[in-house]
Amino acid sequence: MAKSNEKITMKGNPLKVEGRCIEEGSQAPAFKLTAPDMSDVTNSSYAGKVFVLVSIPSIDTPVCAIETKKFNQEGSGLSQDVVIASVSRDLPFALKRWCAAEGVDRVVTLSDYKHRSFGKEYGVELPDLGLLARALFVVDRSGKVVHVDYVTEVAEEPDYAAAISAIKKAL
Question: Catalytic residue among 41, 52, 59, 64, which?
Answer without folding.
Answer: 64
